[in-house]
Structure formats: C-alpha cells, structure tokens
Specification:
Largest sheet: 3 strands, antiparallel
Structural class: alpha+beta
Number of strands: 5
CATH superfamily: Winged helix-like DNA-binding domain superfamily/Winged helix DNA-binding domain
Number of helices: 5
CATH class: Mainly Alpha
Radius of gyration: 21 Å
Strand order of the largest sheet: 3-5-4
Shape: globular
Oligomer: single chain
Order of helices and strands: EEHHEHHEEH
CATH topology: Arc Repressor Mutant, subunit A
Distance between the termini: 29 Å
CATH architecture: Orthogonal Bundle
Helix content: 55-70%
Length: 145
C-alpha cells in the first residue's frame, strides 16, 4: 500500500495497489451505502419500536442482550460494551428501563463495586413483543446476503 497525496487535503490517502484490488472510490462508495443502510434501519427501528412498544433501539438492544444472557442478567460494564454505550449512557438508559420495571439493578455477589442489570418478567414480556417488530424491520430492510 502506497500513500497518494491529494493536494486539496491535509492528509495522505492510502491507496491499494494490489492487482485486482477494488479502487479507493469503490471502497468509499460501498462504505457510504453501508452507512446509509444502517441509518435507514436505525430510523425505522426507532420509529416502529417506539410507536408499537415504547422502546428505543438502545432500550431494545439492552433487553435483547439480557434475554440472551445466563440467568437473564449481565454486569453493567459488560452490557455497556456489548451495546456500544458509555457507562454513563448505559446508566441513564437503565434508569429509564428501571422506572418502567423492565429491569432491576443488583449488586454483584463476588464484587461489591460491580452492578448487575437483571431482566424482570415485565421486561421479558416487552422484549418478546418487540422482538417480532425488530426482526420484521431487519428482514424488510437488510440487504440480502
């Protein structure tokens, strides 16, 4: 890989020179298509999960991860990493879910500093209802692969 300097830019652009390699313009185009698809799916999920189930995408993602977790609970730090949120953002999200009785917080048995987020029965029911909508949106909007 060599660097090609575009005089209009302040930084060099890496350019692949491998035989048969995709052009940089084609790679950028694929990237833009992928981000447009992601934005469209996120917008549809926000709208449909919100209207039908009172959940945002991140709310659903937390419930979804908890459903998949052993004993329906997960350490807050691990949960934040798995849903790509900061600890602070996850804490605010868990506050909202806790107010609607979809999750509970409890101390970790083996680490008093750690917190588990635990799915409640109400959270499990809401997730089951919302999962149908979530999977339907994904099936409709994700490109066939």
């Amino acid at each position: 890989m060599y660097l090609q300097v575009d005089e209009r830019l302040r930084y060099p652009l890496p350019v692949s020179v491998a035989p048969g390699a995709e052009s940089p313009a084609a790679v950028v185009e694929r990237w833009r298509e992928m981000t447009a698809c992601h934005a469209a799916i996120c917008a549809a999920l926000e709208r449909e999960l919100g209207e039908r189930h009172g959940l945002g995408v991140s709310d659903f993602e937390v419930l979804d991860r908890l459903v998949e977790s052993p004993k329906r609970k997960c350490r807050a730090q691990e949960l934040a990493e798995s849903v790509h949120l900061s600890q602070s953002a996850l804490s605010r999200l868990v506050d909202r879910l806790e107010r609607t009785a979809l999750v509970e917080r409890c101390a970790c048995d083996n680490d008093r500093r750690g917190i588990h987020v635990v799915l409640t029965e109400a959270g499990e029911r809401r997730h089951a209802e919302a999962a149908v909508t979530h999977r339907d949106v994904l099936a409709r909007l994700l490109p066939a692969g």
